[in-house]
Amino acid sequence: MILLWSIDTQVEPSWMALMQTAADYALHAEGVKRECAVSLRLCDDDAIHEINRDYRGVDRATDVLSFPMINYPAGTTAGQADKLLRQAFDDEVDACMLGDLIISIPHVLAQAEEYGHSPQREAAYLLVHGICHLMGYDHIEEDDKRSMRAMEEKILSGIGMARDEQENSVSDETLLGLAVSARERSYSPYSGYAVGAALLSSDGRIFQGCNIENASFGLTNCAERTAMFKAISEGATEFTTIAISAEKSAPWPCGACRQVLNEFAPGIRVLVTWDGHVEEAPLSQLLPHGFGPKSLT
Ligand code: THU
């Protein structure tokens, strides 16, 4: 999912990474195959109050507002509305525009405190709630409300953010889906070989990465190393699984990436997916007799 950010208040950077992951997984959970985009504004209460008053005639601040671009027929959501999605294609963003979301950051903080969970979870929840509206869900009738809640929970538990901590294990299927989404952000104009990765850290965080090429070819960074460097720079220290996605051939990590994975996670499971296939191997099999930190002691 392409998120077109507009941020006019101070926001914790880690929330934004989580929101990107939640948005990617929302499309995956809904079964949307097309690249979609959402314009996402993070603001304070005065700004959301103004929008609520001007566009909805409601004279107060609120937590989240969503303005869908697509008029879904009753009982239909984005997963069953491919034709409508296609009609919402926007040349400028090169994706189907689902609509606009506005989230109040003061409401994120206050509601997190009220419900007794982390502000990250509240930020992810409000984003997921808004995206569900943009995908055609609503909560007016009891039946619709149930299916909206079920989809919200599916997305949040998929990314390890469920209310019930028991349900918070990130599955291989989620990681593979997030690797596929990360591939959409690949910058690979020279090779044309787009790669995406999703790295799961032991604390439950997911770090996505893509390959980033350069006109000076040797400076290219592979998807796996992008994900790992993001993770290390955000303070993650232990990792259980990495999923890697490419389009037409198995993206087993290159030698440099095996070495970097070995530095931080010699026991990591490596999943690869391409063209509908999935294969798995432990890093120890991909890099036998690896040279690592212990070799220097
Ligand atoms: N690539 C990766 O992202 N990961 C790998 O492990 C192998 C190769 C990228 C680098 C380059 O942008 C493109 O694939 C072709 O080599």
CATH class bucket of the largest domain = Alpha Beta
Structural class: alpha/beta
In terms of DSSP E residues, the strand content is 15-25%
Radius of gyration: 20 Å
The strand count comes to: 10
CATH T-level topology of the largest domain: Collagenase (Catalytic Domain)
User: Which ligands occur here?
Assistant: tetrahydrodeoxyuridine
Largest sheet: 5 strands, mixed
Which shape, going by the Cα principal axes?
globular
End-to-end Cα distance, whole Å, is 45 Å
The helix content, as a percent range, equals 25-40%
Mean pLDDT: 95
Question: What descriptive keywords fit this protein?
Answer:
Cytidine Deaminase, domain 2, 10 strands, Collagenase (Catalytic Domain), binds tetrahydrodeoxyuridine, alpha/beta
Question: Which helices and strands occur, and which strands form pairs?
Answer:
Layout: E1 2-7, H1 13-30, E2 36-43, H2 45-56, E3 64-68, H3 82-87, E4 89-90, E5 95-104, H4 105-115, H5 119-134, H6 142-158, H7 172-183, E6 196-201, E7 206-210, H8 223-233, E8 239-246, H9 255-264, E9 269-274, E10 277-282, H10 283-286
Helix pairs in contact: 1-5, 1-6, 1-7, 4-5, 5-6
Bound molecules: tetrahydrodeoxyuridine.
In short:
The chain has 297 residues and is an alpha/beta fold. It has helices at residues 13-30, 45-56, 82-87, 105-115, 119-134, 142-158, 172-183, 223-233, 255-264, 283-286; strands at residues 2-7, 36-43, 64-68, 89-90, 95-104, 196-201, 206-210, 239-246, 269-274, 277-282.
Describe this structure in words.
This protein has 297 residues and is an alpha/beta fold. The protein folds into two domains: 2-167, Metalloproteases ("zincins"), catalytic domain (Collagenase (Catalytic Domain), 3-Layer(aba) Sandwich); 172-296, Cytidine Deaminase, domain 2, CATH 3.40.140. It has ten helices and ten strands. The longest helix is centred in the first third of the chain and has 18 residues, at 13-30. The radius of gyration is 20 Å and the shape is globular. The structure holds tetrahydrodeoxyuridine.
